[in-house]
Amino acid sequence: MSCTDFDDIKTICIELCEETEERGVDTPMMN
Length: 31
Prior knowledge:
This protein has one helix spanning 10-23. The chain has one domain (1-31). The relative contact order is 0.22. The protein has 31 residues and is mainly α. It has one helix and no strands. 45% of the residues lie in helices and 0% in strands. The longest helix has 14 residues, at 10-23.
């Protein structure tokens, strides 16, 4: 899934994606 796949929580997902990229850690939500 990509961040744009989320609608209601798109902003939150984008933030999580950015944090995930910075940390290099995959969150269950991004799988």
